[in-house]
Specification:
By secondary structure, the chain is of the alpha+beta class. It has three domains: 2-48, no CATH class; 59-118, no CATH class; 119-432, 3-Layer(aba) Sandwich (Aminopeptidase), CATH 3.40.630. 37% of the residues lie in helices and 24% in strands. The protein has helices at residues 51-87, 94-102, 116-123, 188-193, 210-223, 235-244, 280-287, 302-310, 321-341, 345-356, 365-381, 421-430; strands at 2-5, 14-18, 23-27, 35-38, 43-46, 126-134, 145-154, 159-164, 170-176, 179-184, 229-234, 248-252, 256-262, 288-293, 296-300, 359-361, 388-389, 399-403, 409-413. The protein has a six-stranded mixed beta sheet, with helices on both faces. Strand 7 (145-154) and strand 8 form a beta hairpin. The protein is globular, with a radius of gyration of 32 Å. It starts with a strand and ends with a helix.
Length: 432
């Protein structure tokens, strides 16, 4: 005699036990004994699963699949919510968000999206988005905006226009009610988020959106167009995004060398630069480094792309604000193109993690989705690559250089001190 271990019989499976004298079915669900004692001539052979067993197996698979889908959906939803809460200061409209995020899957839901961007697209109007780039933690003047550029999206003509504003533009910033102080326009964002040193600002220029709103206000005064949204990012975020995307390819228009590129983050890695008795001969070496770019198509990682975007002291044409802003436009287009092509969910999540710690905007999730969809289409049809670039410092040159009372090198309107009428008229003509 031998024993058959019932515990090894798979649950919900029937087994046929065959022998010389008798045959019978054993089903695990209905056997309470630990073992069956069988004659030595008995053999064990599996029976084809019954219809009931197949139905049970199918239901189990469907249940597991459903739970996985629901779990993934909940995870993605929570991830997206945490991401938006981290980067967006906008009050979220649930119906707008549903319409924007699910409208591409269920067209009937698209009508729920009544965000300003969605309505502008439907009505063929324009939206102006202010792009701000600043140093962030570890840089001198952490929140002074090194880059200030308006992205005009004309949904009627399906055209895109970049309008860079020189960071040295001299303006009056309202830090005490409607009164204020004269400063370079790149200080507006910093003043807006600084409630300690500037506690008497107007309510709209204080709080989480204070910096963005104050920068939008000053840019609008200079250009004469409403600025609808802002998007601010620090240097670390910029580098991390490029690296997460796997780098970008840029066609460098001209070879150039910059011997005065800022060296490091507050030079923390340059031990010799911390000495109190630093000789004059070493000051330049500690504060700056040389960066060089050859003409032609080349791959850039995050650090290299940041150098390409920030360089402003090269000899020749690449040392101008116009060339610098054109380089920044190229990078924005390259990043948008690369981001539009990513399909892997893990890369999307990686981008969310990178952006959430280095990025602020007053766009809602619905408006972010609407703009993303539009820019993805613009990338496919070539509008993004054919975007127009307006210069205020090249031809025509709308500014002249001057010196402030406290000896800062500044730019003032060519039409006269604090007279931006010529600039406003030029922008109006170009955006028609």
């Amino acid at each position: 005699m031998r024993e058959l271990d019932i515990r090894r019989v798979p649950k919900h499976n029937s087994y046929k036990l065959q022998g010389a004298e008798k045959q019978f079915l054993v089903h695990h669900d209905f056997v309470n004994e630990k073992h069956l004692i069988l004659p030595p001539d008995f053999s064990e052979a599996p029976v084809v699963p019954t219809k009931r067993s197949l139905v049970g197996l199918r239901n189990m698979v469907l249940l597991v699949f459903t739970l996985l889908v629901l779990g993934t959906g909940v995870f993605i939803g929570l991830k997206a919510k945490l991401f938006v809460n981290a980067i967006s200061t906008s009050k979220q409209s649930i119906t707008n968000n549903i319409g924007a995020t699910l409208g591409s899957v269920i067209p009937a839901l698209k009508s729920l999206d009544s965000s300003m961007v969605a309505e502008a697209i439907r009505d063929g109007k324009s939206v102006n988005l202010l792009l701000l780039g600043y140093g962030g933690a570890g840089h001198g003047g952490s929140y002074l905006t090194d880059t200030m550029m308006v992205l005009n999206l004309n949904f009627k003509t399906e055209s895109i226009t970049y309008i860079p504003v020189p960071r040295d533009t001299w303006v009056k910033i309202p830090t005490h009610g409607y009164d204020g102080i004269y400063a370079k326009i790149n200080a507006a964002y910093a003043y807006g988020i600084d409630s300690k040193n500037y506690p008497n600002k107007l309510p709209q220029f204080s709080g989480v959106d204070g910096g963005g709103n104050l920068a939008k206000y000053e840019i609008s005064k200079v250009l004469g167009v409403p600025v609808d949204y802002y998007l601010a990012m620090d240097f670390s975020g910029f580098k991390n995004i490029v690296d997460t995307l796997g780098g970008v390819e840029i066609d460098v228009e001209n070879s150039f060398t910059d011997y005065s590129y800022p060296s490091g983050d507050l030079n923390v890695d340059a031990a010799s630069c911390t000495a109190d008795d630093l000789p004059d001969s070493l000051i330049a070496d500690c504060r700056y480094k040389k960066v060089h770019f050859e003409k032609g198509l080349q791959y850039m990682d995050g650090s290299r792309a940041l150098e390409y975007a920030r360089s402003r002291h090269a000899a020749g044409i690449e040392g101008s604000d116009f060339s610098r802003s054109k380089r920044q436009q190229k990078l924005i287009s390259a990043i948008a193109h690369k981001a539009a092509s990513i399909g892997a969910l893990n890369k999307v999540f990686s981008l969310m993690d990178v952006v959430s710690n280095h990025f602020k905007t007053d766009l809602s999730i619905a408006e972010i989705k609407d703009l993303t969809d539009y820019l993805r289409t613009a990338d496919k049809n070539g509008s993004l690559q054919q975007a127009k670039h307006l210069s205020l410092t090249d031809d025509p040159n709308m500014f002249v250089s001057s010196w402030s009372e406290d000896k800062q090198w500044i730019l003032i309107p060519a039409a006269g001190f604090n007279d931006f009428s010529q600039i406003k008229e030029y922008i109006k003509e170009q955006l028609q």
